[in-house]
Structures are given as structure tokens and as C-alpha cells.
Design brief:
It is a single chain. The protein has 347 residues and is of the alpha/beta class. It has twelve helices and eleven strands. It has two domains: 3-231, 3-Layer(aba) Sandwich (Aspartate Aminotransferase, domain 2); 235-346, Aspartate Aminotransferase, domain 1. Helix 10 packs parallel to helix 12. The N and C termini lie far apart (56 Å). 46% of the residues are buried. It binds pyridoxal-5'-phosphate (PLP).
């Protein structure tokens, strides 16, 4: 992957993806390969193409989305949707939804499949181990592009440079942002494989697509310095070998809390599923807004833990220390205790 189309954000990156993917197939004289398959509850940004590629219903309800030519398949969310299946069996089933969609639409009408390696905004959905290998098996059978959205997973979040490395994927396009500058300046991009850039260069003519701030020199300088520091301080190795495993071990301890049905994570992302009944994975009545209560308790006590429904998620900085992990865990535990107290007072 040797070319980058620079943008100002992850959303702009995914707008670029949508146009580039369709332009690629048109350049190959296959304009009917127009549909993009994505996933329910995936998140790819807030612009028209980003929110359409994303699979979030409440976003689609605002502004008449999704735009045509985007098909959403099931997500690999075992805890929430796996029912009686084992995680392994459910991972295969969720992946096979891709093959069904390709066959329903017809391979000749499908341009690409887009997915986050781990769904971030959807609730840190870590796919079962069987999921990505089965997706790879399916993609090998059909001539469609793979777009791996690295906006959250990229630049060390999972303990590898990219989520793509974690799962051994070979994307054709890779939208990036966030960790590229560690957020100190807005910058994003789409990393383009040689397979795609060769076609665009030879047959695509001019790509009528560009942003005033693409490759902005101040953002680029900050990104380069950020990458230099990540390498110099060996932050990827630190997340992979030291602080990531440490956080995950401590995070797992929260699974014994009466409110927590599952504690999961990879590297420096984590999620807690808040449930009424751990054994049956039964959720609280959504009217209670348990996730929101827990988030408010947490933020009041100085820990930014986000609520996605009743799933609590964290994404601490790559430089977090062991002492700070202890503080994070203590604050998360306090938020859980206070939430339980509040739920009991309401019933
Ligand atoms: C996976 C993913 N893609 C795209 C985006 C959109 O990026 P931005 O908010 O920079 O537009 C996000 C933002 O959270 C994201 O998590």
C-alpha cells in the first residue's frame, strides 16, 4: 500500500472511499459493480457517505439515509446477538452473511465490503476468532474490494500498527484518521493498495475529488512528529507487550461485579456489558437508561467511560501507566457500584 489520499477526518476518508471504489470499477469498465456491503452497527463517520456506510439506524433516520447502493449485513456481536450459538459458530454465521449478500446482489453488482477490524463506536465489538478467517475465505472467492476502516484501530490501539495486522487482512483501501496525529491536529487519509492505484493511474483519468485541507502542511508536520514519537518511545510494543495485557487483566476483574455480564477488550480498548441477569444475558429495560447512569457516575468521578446503550466502553491514551490503569479500574468499579445503588433505589 504505497499511496495515500489525504483528508481532514475519518468521515472525509470514507466519503473518499465510496467515490474511489466506484470510480475504480468504472475505470475497469464494470460500472455495474456499484454496491458496497457494510454492517449493521458499524460506524464510518457522520457525512452523507460515512453515515450511509455506517449501520446505525438512528443516524439513517436523520437526513434520508442511507444513499442508494449500500447494503448492511449482520454484525459479529456474539454477546448481544449470538443467542445459543458458541462464539465460534456465531462468528462463522455472521461472516457467511457476507457471502449471502454477494450472492443475492450478484457478484457483478458488488464493488466492495467495508468493515472495522473491531467495531469501536458500536460498542467495542470484538469478533469471534472464527470471523475474519471466514471473511477472508469468502473474499478470496469473489472479485470485490476489501476496505478496512482503521480510523479507531490504526496506529497502535490494539497493540499492532493496524487492526489489519492483528487479523492478517489484506485490504485494498484503508481509511485512517485519529491516531495518525494522536488527535492533536485534524488529519485523515485513505491508504491505497497498488492494485487499486495502478488501475486509477492507468485508466481512471483525473479523479475529480479533493479537499482544500488535504495534506495540510501543519497537520502533516504534526502527524510526522507524532509517528516519530510513537516509534521512538516504542508505544506499539508498549501496548502489545506491557500495558495492553496489564489493562486487559485488570479489566477482566470487573467481570465479577454483579452488573457486568461480560468484560472484553484488546490492547487499549475495552467494553463492559451491563445486564440485569448475567446467566441469561438479560438486559435492563432500556427506559431505565442504565448505561447513561453509569456514564454520568463515571464522568463525575473523573473517568471518561462512554455508554453505547448499556455497553460501557473505554479507550485510554497509549501512554497510560500502570498506576493510571489502577486509577481507571478503581473509578470504573466505583461507577458500577454507584450505578447498582441507583438502580436499586429506582425499583
Ligand atoms: C471507525 C471509524 N470510522 C470513521 C470515523 C469518522 O471519523 P471522524 O470523526 O474523524 O470524521 C470514526 C469516528 O469515530 C470511526 O470510529
Amino acid at each position: 500500500m504505497n499511496q495515500v489520499f489525504f483528508t481532514g477526518s475519518g468521515s472525509e476518508s470514507n466519503d473518499t472511499v465510496l467515490r474511489m471504489v466506484r470510480h475504480y470499477w468504472a475505470a475497469k469498465e464494470k460500472p455495474e459493480k456499484f454496491n458496497i456491503i457494510s454492517r449493521r452497527n458499524g460506524y464510518h463517520g457522520s457525512t452523507v457517505a460515512g453515515a450511509s456506510l455506517g449501520g446505525m439506524k438512528p443516524m439513517h433516520q436523520q437526513g434520508g439515509l442511507p444513499i442508494p447502493g449500500i447494503v448492511h449485513i449482520d454484525q459479529p456481536y456474539w454477546y448481544g446477538e449470538g443467542a445459543d450459538l458458541s462464539p465460534e459458530a456465531f462468528g462463522i454465521k455472521a461472516a457467511q452473511a457476507l457471502e449471502s449478500a454477494i450472492l443475492d446482489l450478484g457478484e457483478d453488482n458488488v464493488a466492495a465490503f467495508i468493515a472495522e477490524p473491531i467495531q469501536g463506536a458500536g460498542g467495542v465489538v470484538i469478533p469471534p476468532e472464527t470471523y475474519w478467517p471466514e471473511i477472508k475465505r469468502i473474499l478470496a472467492k469473489y472479485d470485490i474490494l476489501l476496505v478496512v476502516d482503521e480510523v479507531i484501530c490504526g496506529f497502535g490501539r490494539t497493540g499492532e500498527w493496524f487492526g489489519t495486522d492483528l487479523y492478517g487482512l489484506e485490504p485494498d483501501l484503508m481509511p485512517i484518521a485519529k491516531g495518525m496525529t494522536s488527535g492533536y491536529m485534524p488529519m485523515g487519509g485513505v491508504i491505497v493498495s497498488d492494485r487499486v492505484s495502478a488501475v486509477l493511474e492507468e485508466k481512471g483519468g483525473e479523479f475529480y475529488h479533493g479537499y482544500t485541507y488535504s495534506g495540510h502542511p501543519v497537520a502533516a508536520a504534526v502527524a510526522l512528529e507524532n509517528l516519530r514519537i510513537i516509534k521512538e518511545k516504542k508505544l506499539i510494543e508498549y501496548v502489545r507487550d506491557d500495558i495492553g495485557p496489564y489493562l486487559q487483566e485488570r479489566w477482566q476483574a470487573l467481570a465479577s461485579h454483579p452488573l457486568v455480564g461480560e468484560a472484553r477488550g484488546v490492547g487499549l480498548v475495552g467494553a463492559l456489558e451491563l445486564v440485569k441477569d448475567k446467566a441469561t444475558r438479560t438486559r435492563f429495560d432500556s427506559e431505565l437508561g442504565v448505561g447513561g447512569i453509569c456514564r454520568d457516575m463515571s464522568v463525575e468521578n473523573g473517568l471518561v467511560m462512554r455508554a453505547v446503550g448499556d455497553t460501557m466502553i473505554i479507550s485510554p491514551p497509549l501512554v497510560i501507566t500502570r498506576e493510571e490503569v489502577e486509577e481507571l479500574i478503581a473509578k470504573a468499579e466505583l461507577a458500577l457500584d454507584l450505578t447498582l445503588e441507583k438502580i436499586r433505589s429506582l425499583s
